[in-house]
Design brief:
The structure holds two protein chains of two kinds.
Chain A lengths: L1 H43 L2 H11 L4 H23 L8 H39 L2 H7 L4 H39 L4 H11 L2 H28 L5 H34 L1
Helix pairs in contact in A: 1-6, 2-6, 3-4, 3-6, 4-6, 4-7, 4-8, 4-9, 6-8, 8-9
Chain B lengths: L3 H26 L10 E8 L10 E4 L2 E12 L4 E9 L10 E6 L6 E6 L12 E2 L1 E3 L4 H17 L1
Parallel strand pairs in B: 1-7, 2-6, 5-8
Antiparallel strand pairs in B: 1-4, 2-3, 3-4, 5-6
The chains are: A mainly alpha, B alpha/beta.
């Protein structure tokens, strides 16, 4: 009997400790974000730092975004055509491809790729910097790691995501065009005019744009925090990298639902 | 480590590519080029029934898009629907006795307003009211009228 009480006490204790730890971590992530955001004005005076990070966050992610965008667009073209042709409405293929890419798939898939390619690289880099004690070293030289290391990366992720999402959607629409028009014989004029009729600049394009901004923000924040807060061992860096990808992917998907609900409601 | 110049060129290309993609999306894939609400004048029309008409429904003359519905409200005094049409400025010569009717594109398609020009010399201007209107055809009403008529005929 007493044994059982002690055991359940242990489980409860572990549960409580776990909860406290995750609250503590969330709080730390919030404070971390505040400090990073506060350091951003200082970085604006040194654009070279941002350009350097835009290269590693944006330019190096572009290949995967181009390839994925083209294939996703081609699949949309194929699947959309096969479904629409049953209802004799393959003329709406442009609407289907355009709306899905601009509103949902463009921002979301790009953010997932971004978390996998750029986010994991950021986390690993920061984790390794922490494991090799580079942050204290910087502080010893009176260099603020928030201003020198973290804020430029945050800003670069924030800037790169809308561009990447735009490139993804544009390439995806081309992919859908190649399959739908060149291969399956939908009329080119119909494809574009139906798309233009359905895709509203202020509602659909802007929805996609705000989403990609929010996703870039969330994914970069998580990647930076996981790296900066990692356990400074090789194992800890590995775990932080995995967690960074998992957490930012989940955050992106959850955030997407919330944003879609909000943006659809305000537009209705 | 790559030289600073190479990185700058790549980042420049990235930004230009991203802007081009956004530009292409805005111009080629969205309605930004086809709808211009800035250069438009507002005309009102009263309908007994607007059916499924909604804000942003097309306004057409001879089947060509000349504007959009910008507002629909209910006039409590006259018990009619008050529809505001914004018509592009370049179509400024609609006679003042132009009539507006609500049509449906196809059997189940979206509803739009068709303008049929009249013969007056005065033209519609900002704030004018269209005098002659035809309400939307409500399919259910037609069906029920047909049914009642048929039932009445059967009773005879």
């Amino acid at each position: 009997m007493a044994d059982g009480v002690a055991k359940s006490g242990d489980t409860l204790g572990a549960l409580g400790r776990g909860a406290l730890r995750s609250f503590e971590r969330t709080g730390r992530a919030g404070l971390f974000l505040l400090r990073v955001l506060k350091s951003i004005p200082a970085v604006l005076a040194r654009p070279w730092l941002i350009v350097q990070q835009l290269y590693s966050v944006g330019v190096l992610t572009i290949v995967i975004v181009l390839v994925a965008g083209a294939f996703v667009g081609m699949v949309l073209g194929l699947q959309g055509y096969n479904i629409l042709v049953r209802f004799n409405s393959e003329a709406s293929l442009g609407t289907f491809v355009g709306l899905t890419l601009v509103r949902e798939l463009g921002p979301v898939v790009t953010a997932l790729l971004f978390a996998g390619r750029a986010g994991s690289a950021l986390t690993a880099e920061l984790g390794l910097m922490k494991a090799t004690e580079q942050f204290p070293a910087l502080e010893m030289m009176a260099v603020d790691p928030y201003k020198r290391v973290l804020a430029p990366r945050m800003l670069a992720g924030f800037i790169a995501m809308p561009f990447l999402a735009g490139i993804f959607s544009a390439v995806g629409i081309m992919g859908g065009y190649v399959i739908g028009v060149d291969l399956l014989g939908v009329d080119a004029g119909t494809f574009w005019s139906q798309m233009q009729k359905a895709v509203d600049f202020h509602e659909d394009m802007m929805t996609g744009f705000w989403k990609s901004l929010a996703f870039g923000f969330a994914a970069t924040w998580i990647a930076l925090f996981e790296g900066y807060d990692s356990v400074p061992t090789s194992e800890g860096v590995g775990r932080a990298t995995t967690q960074s990808v998992v957490h930012s992917s989940l955050a992106v998907l959850g955030l997407n639902f919330i944003l879609t609900a909000f943006l659809l409601e305000t537009n209705a | 480590m790559m030289s600073r110049r190479v990185i700058e060129v790549w980042v420049g290309l990235f930004v230009v590519g991203g802007l081009l993609a956004l530009f292409m999306l805005a111009m080629k894939a969205s309605n930004l080029t086809t709808v211009s609400t800035a250069d438009a004048y507002q005309v009102t029309a009263r309908f007994a029934n607007v059916g499924g008409l909604s804000v942003k429904s097309p306004v057409k003359a001879s089947g060509v898009l000349v504007g959009r519905v910008s507002d629909i409200s209910y006039d409590d005094g006259s018990h009619e629907a008050l529809v505001t049409l914004s018509i592009e400025k370049r179509f400024a010569s609609f006679p003042s006795d132009t009539s507006a009717s609500i049509y449906t594109a196809g059997l189940l398609g979206e509803q739009y307003i068709g303008l049929a020009p009249g013969a007056e010399e005065d033209t519609l201007k900002e704030g004018s009211t269209i005098m002659f209107t035809d309400s939307a055809v409500v399919l259910e009403q037609m069906i029920s009228q047909f049914m009642y008529k048929k039932m009445a005929d059967d009773d005879k």
